[in-house]
Amino acid sequence: MLFNSWGFPPFLLLVLLLYYRLPHRAQNVMLLLASYFFYACWDWRFLGLLLLSTSVDWTLANLISREPTRAGAKRWVAASVTVNLCFLGFFKYFNFFVDSADALLAALNLAGFGRHLEVVLPVGISFYTFQSISYIVDVYRGEVEPARNPIDFALFVAFFPHMVAGPIMHSRDLLPQMQKPRVTTRGQVKEGLWLMLWGFFKKMVVADNLAPMVAAVYGSPTAASGGAVLVATYAFAYKIYCDFSGYSDIARGAAKLMGFELMVNFRQPYLAQNPSDFWRRWHISLSTWLRDYLYVPLGGNRFGRLLTYRNLALTMLLGGLWHGAAWNFVLWGAFHGGLLVAHRLLVQEWKLWRFDGRLARLVAQVLMFHLVCYGWLLFRAQSFAQVASFTRALFGGLGALAPLLPWLAPLVALALLLWLVELWVRNADDPSHSPGWRLGLGPLACAVLLVAVVVLTPPGTQSFIYFQF
Predict the structure, then answer these.
(1) Cα separation of 32 and 429, whole Å?
(2) What pLDDT, on a 0 to 100 scale, did the predictor assign at position 438?
(3) Residue 106 class from Cβ within 10 Å (0-12 exposed, 13-18 middle, 19+ buried)?
(4) Are 83 and 53 contacting, i.e. CB atoms less than 8 angstroms apart?
């Protein structure tokens, strides 16, 4: 089921009506069944995989807590990580690695494997796999007690607002909310409704209306002018931000209506002044996960400069691969790893540029935004050949701009409206703290956004970008 489908509002309303009438334990059972139904609306056959993964991790976490030796506990952790990565590797990466090996063997004039399985990628598998792995590691580290009640843990994994596309929650933050009775406050209801409305606007009005101009350039096999590539890349930057952050806002808003608090996943990332700042603002739950469960275990910055650079590059490389089974995602991850290394070397260590003063910060923001946009070109491109072609087009001049005017008007209008609202509420869950809201502009803003969602949403239901990851 999609948040932006016609079936979601009645589904959520029914869940809320039942939720508010039930005691805590019954709430959890009902939410778990509702979450499984929500997932089964996509493909009921993969419920078995979700149940198997959940059962394995619940069992192994309890074995870890009872294991008398550290070595024994490590073996159970290794077993859990192996099972989870095997599921993820088979469904997401089997054909990718086989096809890559075949291409390499063909280049060497050797016979390939010749096998390609029609594997359907289970929606949300990357998200719930990472969340389960973090739970196992947290139990091993002693940061959280294992869930004794399997219903609580199953709900932690499958909670429908966030299981398909995050945010990826730490067990220490979300699991206790499953285990204790919850009280939904009036403030949470108000904040939740605002977040959902704002999320629907970002997804259905901004992202879905920018999608055609992105597809017109990136989906075409013919070469494009530099101007077309630039405008389409700007459009994709706002499309992917509004699509993904819109999902996170709806997820957080729906959770608030039931008294749950999910972490903030985006904090105006295009205002970042450097690569580190960007990853503190973009997909925060993933960057936090990569830091806590990959970068730090690799050694972080504790073993000298060269190993720090290696750890940064490797973390981002694997973060890129997490996004999808394609080499352009690996290239995108390597690009961001290179930016992090370069920033640490040139700015933090050599101190070649100090960002003092408003003008310097503005220049840094503009530069970082365009570096991120080039990264989106790598992310969205369909092949290395398209990356090379579009890069040449960008540096070869903009070309004729008149044909791009029909694209520029909606792009500028939608981006400007997005920025005005975000700067007004400062990305707050509760915008009623804004002076403008208290002057009576809040209800008017909500009415405008609601009308925009109804009137400006293009026909057809478009899936969220991160469902494919």
Answers:
(1) 26
(2) 66
(3) exposed
(4) yes
CA dist 124 to 130, 144, 384, 469, Å?
Answer: 10, 24, 27, 7
What secondary structure letter does DSSP report for 45? Answer: G
pTM: 0.90
Given a contact cutoff of 8 angstroms between Cβ atoms, the answer to whether 24 and 258 are in contact is no
User: Residue 116 has what pLDDT?
Assistant: 60
**CA dihedral angle for residue 17, residue 21, residue 23, residue 27, rounded to 10 degrees:** -10
pLDDT of amino acid 270: 94
Question: What pLDDT, on a 0 to 100 scale, did the predictor assign at position 110?
Answer: 64
With beta carbons less than 8 A apart as the criterion, state whether 178 and 25 touch: no
- Centroid of chain to Cα 165: 6
Our answer to whether residue 370 is catalytic in this structure is no
Chain centroid to Cα 117, Å, comes to 27
Residue 108: its pLDDT value, please?
A: 64
Q: Which residue has the tokens 């929500």?
A: 38
Domain boundaries, the chain: 8-182, 187-273+355-468
> Mean pLDDT for each consecutive 10-residue tract of the chain (469 residues)?
86 96 96 94 84 93 90 92 88 71 64 61 83 93 92 94 86 92 91 91 93 90 84 94 93 95 92 93 93 90 87 92 85 94 83 74 92 96 90 83 80 87 74 66 82 87 71
Helices 327-343, 358-380: axis angle to 10 degrees equals 160
Residue 104: count other Cβ atoms within 10 Å of its Cβ.
11
Distance between CA atoms of 90 and 129, rounded to whole angstroms? 13
Which residue shows structure tokens 């398909």? Answer: 164
In eight-state DSSP terms, residue 68 is S
Catalytic residue, from 170, 323, 336, 343: name it. Answer: 323
For tokens 């029914």, the residue is 14
Q: Strand, helix or coil at 270?
A: helix
Residue 336 CA, chain-centre distance (Å), reads: 16
